[in-house]
Structures are given as structure tokens and as C-alpha cells.
Amino acid sequence: MADPVAAAMRHGFTHLVRRELRGVWLHGGLPRGPFVWAANHHTWWDPFVAAAVLWRTGHPACLLMQQDNLARYGFLRRLGVFGTHEPRTGLRLLRDGRTLVVYPEGELRPAGPPGPLSRGAAWYARQARVPLLAVAVRVVLRGHNRPEAYVSCTEVPRGRDDAQVTAKLAEALAVDLSHLDGQLAGADPRQPLSGFRRVLAGRRSWDERVDAAKGALPWRS
What is the pTM (predicted TM-score) of this model? Predict the structure, then answer.
């Protein structure tokens, strides 16, 4: 039976993203079934953006959180959040069809290349036999008054050696973040990045609303 409280929380989080961001754009495909979403963690928005993308694309989500943080935010268990000391819960959720969101840096870090990664993402992908995706995320304020979220996904081949797979994950994240930063630095700040598709529309910026209002005036030529 569906949990009405969890449904209300999901709606509230999606509404928050729609209200505060101009939109969320995605590059790369997502597997049809469950997978491990292993992303950099450089902004407060990261888990909200991950949840919005996954719910929007039909992927029920769960999230790995530091155990001490979960002790303070226990209500998030309704959304499939579990602690770092509960690996069996994570495997069960993956086998039940949920996509696992992991931040292998283990902490919020300054924007830039990824920091050292833990092996948890590789371990979960190997144990559950699901794809592992390196997910580069940037939430940036550009040519509008509301930030935009850009998400770029690259699949990392699984293997038996979690250390080697983690090294490949770190390399993929570093390359994709560098490429994404380069695109953001060189692109027209008033236009979405080339090659990205918008998966969630947010609130229009002030100038867009002004332009829309002007276009609606009957005497505008």
C-alpha cells in the first residue's frame, strides 16, 4: 500500500525544485531498471536534483546517508533513505527496483574536481548486479535570476575489484565535471547547454516573465 506521507514529501521536494530552480537538464541516458547513481556532492541541491530527475524519469529512488545524519532526519526513511551502517537495506531496495543515490565523496565539498571516493558505490553495483553511473552535477547561476541544474551521466563498467572500479568512477567523474565546467564557461549564459535536454521545468526568471507579459499585450507589434 502506498504511503501517503511519502507521496506528499515527494511532491513537496519536487515543488521545491520547480519553485527555486529555473530547470534541470540531463545529458546521457539512464538504464531502464535500477542502478547506482554515484555523483559528486558540491551543493545543497544535489539530492533534490537527483530525486527530481529519477522520479521524473520513472526511477523510484533511495539514498545512502551518513548514519549520524540519518539519526537527526529519521523521517526521510519514508522516502527510502538508509544509513551507511545498513548495507543489507540498500541491497534490498536495489533488488526491489529502486535506484540508489550515493555520494562517494562522503561529504559536501567545494565545487571543483571530485575528492577521494569511497568504494561503496562500486560495492553496491557489484553485489546487486546493477549498472553503475558516474553522475556529474553542477547547479549554477548564469544569465537568469534563478539557478540551473545540469546533470551528465556516464556508465562505468562493473568489475570484481571494487578499488579498480572506484578508480574508473573517479576518472569518469573528473572528466565529466571538467567538460561540464568548460561548457558552462564558454556557452551563452542565457541559453541551455548544447546536448542537454530539460527533464524538469522550473520557475521562469524575471526577464522571461516580463518578455512573456509583453508578448501577451494586444498592441505589441
Answer: 0.91
